[in-house]
Structures are given as structure tokens and as C-alpha cells.
Design goal:
Length: 152
């Protein structure tokens, strides 16, 4: 139980901290922090249960994308205000740094391994955001069709 609490607290504070650095509006802090916590918990649990790095990043980023769209509509703010801070925890900064360091030291084989990790993570996140936008469009179309049908 305490491990869950630690993950929740630190992911919330990290998301809000990055939101402060990127200068998001104060009224978006809690929603952004909640979105970041949800995304991190999904990632952490999937990785704990031996899902691939790409899969865990995909599902976490998909949830972040969907929650960001929800909060952007609810608070009438751009989606990116919730995307950027919430995604901070999933960005593969460590492997990217390590890849550069390995290239400099001449260990190209290990560097390419790290670059593949960065590429898989980035592609998973991008694919999840594309999927969340697709889900949003489908939901809006269904909603518009229901309203249109209801008015007839």
C-alpha cells in the first residue's frame, strides 16, 4: 500500500512541477496532476506485470490522451495544457542521455540499443495520441448523430 502511495504522490508532484515549469494555468494543476498520476499508474502496473515497454507506454499515453481531451473540454482549455505535463513521466530522457553517452564513449552497439528504446517509446506515445484523437472524433460523431436523430 505504501508503494502505491509513494507512486501517487511523486507522480502528482512531478506532473504539477513540470506544469509550473511549462507555465500552465493554475486552474489546470489538479486535473493535469490527476491525469499524470493515472498515466503513470497504468505504465507502472503494466511494466510490473511484464508488459513490453512499448505496450506500457502506449496504454498509459492513450489514457493520458483521453483524460486530457476530457479535461480540456470540461475546463475549456487547449488539450496541450494537459498533455505536456502529464506526459513528462513517460518521456525516455534517461535512455536518450545514455545513448549519447555511449556514442561518445565509442560503444555504438549499446548506444543503438538505447536509441531503439527511445524510438519505441516515442512511437508508442505518438501512436497513443493519434488513437486518442481518433476516439474523440468517433465519440463526437456518435454524439452528433444521436442529437440529429433525436431532433428528427
Amino acid at each position: 500500500m505504501s508503494e502505491w502511495l509513494i507512486h501517487i504522490i511523486f507522480s502528482f508532484l512531478s506532473t504539477i512541477g513540470f506544469g509550473i515549469v511549462t507555465n500552465i494555468p493554475r486552474r489546470a494543476f489538479v486535473a493535469s496532476g490527476f491525469t499524470g498520476v493515472c498515466g503513470w499508474l497504468v505504465f507502472w502496473q503494466l511494466k510490473t506485470h511484464h508488459m513490453s515497454l512499448g505496450g506500457a507506454n502506449f496504454w498509459a499515453a492513450l489514457l493520458i490522451g483521453i483524460l486530457s481531451i476530457y479535461f480540456s473540454r470540461k475546463q475549456k482549455m487547449p488539450v496541450i495544457i494537459f498533455h505536456i505535463p502529464s506526459l513528462f513521466l513517460l518521456v525516455p530522457g534517461g535512455p536518450a542521455y545514455l545513448a549519447i553517452r555511449l556514442f561518445i564513449s565509442g560503444n555504438t552497439s549499446a548506444a543503438f540499443t538505447q536509441i531503439s528504446i527511445v524510438t519505441i517509446t516515442a512511437a508508442s506515445i505518438a501512436g497513443a495520441f493519434m488513437m486518442s484523437n481518433l476516439v474523440e472524433r468517433i465519440v463526437l460523431k456518435i454524439s452528433n448523430l444521436q442529437k440529429k436523430h433525436k431532433n428528427c
